[in-house]
Amino acid sequence: MSSAVKPASESELSEALRDLEAPVEIVGTGTRRGLGRPVQAAATLDLSGFAGIIAYEPEELILEAGAGTKLSDVEALIGARGQQLAFEPPDWSALLGSAHNGTLGGLVSCNLSGPRRLKAGAVRDHILGVRGVTGAGDVFKAGARVVKNVTGYDLPKLLTGSYGTLAALTSVILKVLPAPETEETVALTGLDDQAAVAAMSLAMQSPCEVSAAAHVPGEAVYLRLEGIAASVAYRRDALAKLLQQPVEVMAAKSSAATWRAIRDGQMFAENARHPLWRLSVTPSEAPAIIRKLREKTDLRYLFDWAGGLVWIEVPSSQDASAALVRGAMRGGHATLIRAPEAARGAVDVFEPQPAALAALTARVKDSFDPRHLLNPGRMYRGL
Question: 336 falls in which pLDDT band (50, 70, 90)?
Fold first, then answer.
């Protein structure tokens, strides 16, 4: 086998996987190769040929496209019809040093969602079906364009977030939703971390339908409202009254720019060599985690998802401060988003699994990829 294989059809992909004698790294356009641990493979399996819109039914709110389709092309197509991917996919090209935002298959494989995840859910909540080929070379289809209540395994959700370690995806079916008519953001300044989390919690528990809540230290707490203009205005005034403190209201254009910067982690893009972590925690725990880390290292940070997601940038080190970051947590999980390859190979990029869960993960891997050919080591050592 040559150092790169680029199949043009599922049958070619199936044949290539059946003929493999050594592991491969799955790539589309390569924009997210820096996520996860370094893959232990000398050859690549290029899936960029599986590109293009297969079916788009705006009235039915359904899109099917090849896994190699650029995400920017998908968003341009549905945006022209006033629709969106409601989970708000982030553009990490600046963070990861990529030329663009990658492919639809890469987005699904990494399960990446933006600030609206609080209200709309994650990628796996919007995926209806997938097609692909397992590591054993078996072509499969799971899910469909029509949502049905059935008993059985939800394979599309299982494959979402598997980082290409179980199968090579060839196409994806997603729900799309109408984009909001307008948006505004209520901003509160002068709050410390504890007060910021309290304000975000209060806003999220209110009937004001806040679609995103974030705290940028030194800047403000941002609370986004979306929908028709009259509803946004009413909920904005109700939220300001509920918070009982001075607020600034950001109109649609500045609101969108602010949330784009938060979604894409723009404040962390300038220091490419500095390790960057994302912690999923109980929101009330977020301020304590930051206090503990500040006692031992310099850092920059951001709270998203009302404090449930904490971005942390730490100084360069051989272990990306993994022990320090995880030692400050009492629960949840930490994922290393950016670090030099040597650091990503030396530490657990994803949260270490308990023995029982690790055994289950190994059995799933063996079922889909019995010879461990696909992206070996990308998520966990030995898998």
Answer: very high
